Amino acid sequence: MRCFTQSDLNSLDALYRINLINGLSGFKSANLIGTVAADGNENVAIFSSVIHLGSDPPILGFIHRPITAGGNTYENIKQTGFYTINHLSTEIMEEGHHTSANYDRDVSEFEMTNLKSEYLNDFKAPFVAHAPVKIGMKYLEEYVIKPNETILMVGEIISVYIEDTLLESDGFINLSNGNIVAVNGPDGYSLTKLEQRYPLQYPKPK
Amino acid sequence: MRCFTQSDLNSLDALYRINLINGLSGFKSANLIGTVAADGNENVAIFSSVIHLGSDPPILGFIHRPITAGGNTYENIKQTGFYTINHLSTEIMEEGHHTSANYDRDVSEFEMTNLKSEYLNDFKAPFVAHAPVKIGMKYLEEYVIKPNETILMVGEIISVYIEDTLLESDGFINLSNGNIVAVNGPDGYSLTKLEQRYPLQYPKPK
Q1: A84 falls within a domain
Q2: How many domains, in total, are found in chain B?
Q3: Which of the four pLDDT bands, split at 50, 70 and 90, describes residue B200?
Q4: Which of A74, B57, B106, B115 is 20 to 30 A from A85, alpha carbon to alpha carbon?
Q5: Closest approach of A183 to chain B, Cα-based (Å)
Q6: Which of B17, B113, B134 sits opposite A56 (nearest CB)?
Q7: Euclidean distance between CA atoms B58 and B158, whole angstroms
């Protein structure tokens, strides 16, 4: 095995370091977060840091870069209190990746890419058309991670839309059936195949 | 598409709710966290919530269940200050899943499953043999997520071990080459195939 000591890690060049460290957490989720500013200007941006925090109450988190680094997503959520999380499938993968470009603040990624916004059941933030899973979220709170000033944004699930072919009879969402991708490192997108479900969430001791 | 309103979500039965909500974040990482108590008793447990927080400093987070629900992982980390994160491959997938069973506090999952602990370069916590990626972690801090009292544990990467076949020349870790799995919902394990890398982390606007 290749070994990196702390000293090795500290002396890596910047791009190598980003590639390496970004891969160390394992596979990541691929989501487009849709928001709208108080003035009506829409925003959509790709995130690979959405995490499950709990099912009752149903809450999700995601990591936002430091406020000092900018970001319409954070500002729009604070202005309106709502956002959407949309799953990235192969169909919208390349367009989704392009939302990470540094557009000017007043430019909507919905206009600069082929992604289409859609409004469902009067929810106040835009969903992304063609996403196989779409979630309406209400902002709850945030935590600033001190070592690097990233922000854990916490929100409650308000509404859910799922393609029928993904939803199994016991509530399991078969993500592979929607060609939903997993993220590998900073720039890799992987297709998946469900290999195994084990019968119980918390199996009995052997 | 199937739609769930907030009212629908609130009236789901418990297992359906767990399956559904656990799938909504998208694919999750599959990791075994290794720890040892001050008295030398080892522990290893599966987590699907390890997330990348930043590459400089190199820090990772993971979500631990509320302290009131128990958990040797949290206690051992607080006692020793160190832990390991090990990637789950198909080779150790079933054994890894079994670590989520409710063993008694004084029982080591290393003894109750076929997972083997190993100590590398005097690091104070046990790694998991046969894991294709192993990371030595130093505890930094924690944040209690108020809505459900789960805990975001934040640590710094101290050492890294990677199978040679996974590591590409630019530092990218090809997780699929190690048969590393992604987690789908509470109990699904997926195999992956790297589909596409895009040339830049932050692509230029179109």
Answers
A1: yes
A2: 1
A3: low
A4: B57
A5: 8
A6: B17
A7: 9
